[in-house]
Amino acid sequence: MNLKRVLVLSCLFLTLPLQAQELIQLNQEDISRLGIVTSQVMPVDNSIGTSFPATVINSPLSTSAVTIPYGGILQNWHIEPGTQVQAGDSLTEISSQELLDLQNEWSSAQLDLEQKNFELEKDSLLLEEGIISRQRFTQTQRDYQQSAAALQIISAKLSLAGFNQEQLSTMTGNALGVYTVRSPVSGSADHLMVNAGSYVAANSVIASIGSEERWLSAQLPARIANHLEIGQMLRASGSNTPLTLRQKDFAIDSQTQTVEIFAVFNTLPELMVGQVVTLIVPPVENGILVPANAVVHSGNETTVYVQRDGGFESRPLNLLPAGADYLAVDGINAGERVAIRGTAILKGIQLGLGGE
Q1: Contacts 24+ apart (CB under 8 A), 102-106
Q2: How would residue 173 be classed by pLDDT, with cut points 50, 70 and 90?
Q3: Domain of residue 127, CATH code
Q4: What is the pLDDT of residue 169?
Q5: Do residues 205 and 225 share a domain?
Q6: What average pLDDT score do residues 241-259 get?
C-alpha cells in the first residue's frame, strides 16, 4: 500500500461523505506501519465536563457585610484579617455626631413624654371631679400618644446602633456619640475596608465576615444551566472538594443569555473570597467519553473508528459535547478501543483511496 498516496488523498477528500463499510481490514503490521494509534474509551465521570469561570463568595444565605448605620470616625479595630469571631463580638467603635444628635433628641423626647404623662394623670383626676371637659381630656390624651410615638421612633433609630431601653436610660458622659459595631455572624474577618481614624459615611460597608461556608457564583449559558438540577454535584478545577448546586435563577439575562447559579463547597476549601476559579460542569447524561481526536466529522455526521479483530469498524455515533471531548450515550461500550491518530488514513481507505 502506498502510504504517501493514502495520506495525500485522505486530506483532499476529508470532507466527503463516508461510505458504509463493515470493516476496514488491516493487520497489526499495517496498523503499525500507518502509524495508527488507539485508545480505550471509558465511562464519563465528574472529572470531565465543560469549564466556566466562577467566583468564590461567602454564603448568600447569611449576612457577611458589616454596615454602619450612622456616619462617624472609626476608632481602633479590635480584630485583624483572619480573626475568628462569634456573632455579637465587638469589632470597633464609631464616634458619630449623627448618633449624638439622635441621643439628644431622645433625651428631649423622654422629658417631653414624662411631662405629657404628668399632664395626662392630672387631667384624668380633674375629669373625674368634673372640673375639665371630656374634650380637654381627649386632647391631653392625644398629646401623650403623639409624644410616646415620637420617642418610640427615635428609640428604634438608636436600636440600629445597638442601644436598648436600659442603655438609653443610662447614657451619660463619654458614652454619648459613640457606638459599638458588632459582628452580624460567626466566621472569620475576611477584609477590613476602612483604616482606623478614618471618617465613614452612614450605611457604608466597613468589613466582611466570612461565614463557615464557601460558595461559588457563576454565569452559565442558558442551554447548560437549564439541564442542571438542585442538589447536583459539581467540581472546581484544582480542588478535591466537590460542590453541591444550591440555587439557580429561573430568569435568563437578556443581555448575555446566561443564568446565574450558586453552588456550596461540601467542606471549607483553602480558597479566598473573591478568588476566580474554574467550575467544571459534568455532562447532563451518563455515557462513554470519546476523545475529540477520535471523531471524524462529515457534514452533520460524526464517526469513530473502533478496532476489531482484523481491522477497524467505521461507526457513526450521536455525540454530545463534554468539555474538550465528546459524550456518547449509546452506540459504543466501555473498554472498546478507538483510533485517536491516523483517522484520516482510515477514512481514505474507507473511501477507496488507498491501494497496494
Answers
A1: 102/70, 102/154, 102/157, 102/158, 103/158, 103/168, 103/171, 103/176, 103/177, 105/154, 106/151, 106/154, 106/155, 106/158, 106/168, 106/171
A2: low
A3: 1.10.287
A4: 72
A5: no
A6: 91
